[in-house]
Amino acid sequence: MPKFEEQLESIYASDRHQWREWLAKNHLTYPGVWLVYYKVKSGQPSVRYSEAVQEALCFGWIDSKVKTLDETRYQQIFTPRKPKSVWSKLNKQYIEELIAQNLMTEVGLAKIADAKKDGSWNSLDAIEALTIPIDLQQALETSSSANLNFAAFSNSAKKNILFWIQSAKRPETRLKRVEQTVTSAAQNRNPLSR
Known about the structure:
Layout: H1 4-7, E1 10-12, H2 16-26, E2 33-38, H3 49-58, E3 61-68, E4 73-80, H4 89-100, H5 106-118, H6 125-128, H7 134-140, H8 144-152, H9 155-166, H10 171-186
Parallel strand pairs: 1-2
Antiparallel strand pairs: 2-4, 3-4
Helix pairs in contact: 2-3, 3-4, 7-10, 8-10, 9-10
């Protein structure tokens, strides 16, 4: 059986308007789509990434995996947002602008309402604010080198680590990730680096 992403159609939108038209017609019936972009250097008209994301948000969709096609094109998966999926700070900023411009659809607004009810709307707030959870902070304090090194990691590295820890589904998995973070940080390594 082919993977989900292999079953998706590829579409091309020359601009934001064309992408919005496709979403308006298909957002309720398609499980997802690969949106093809032309790189700016190609000279071909193409919807831009930020525009594509904003229009997708209007219809309750979200972007994910990117794949290079050739020197001038790449494609990205867009799918309907799943329940309890997290909302980035940037996407929430886009949402504010889209609401002010009256561009959100009922489906997009319903996804926001659901996210606010189930807590996924705010689930990244602590990560965006670089708030260290108590279990990680206590574990880091057991090793001065781990604590110092972790503090010196870039903000983006810390956010990725915090998300990795937060996204653990089981307490044992979370504990293991906290321990891996402390062990790696003591060696001045990011636990997510391969």
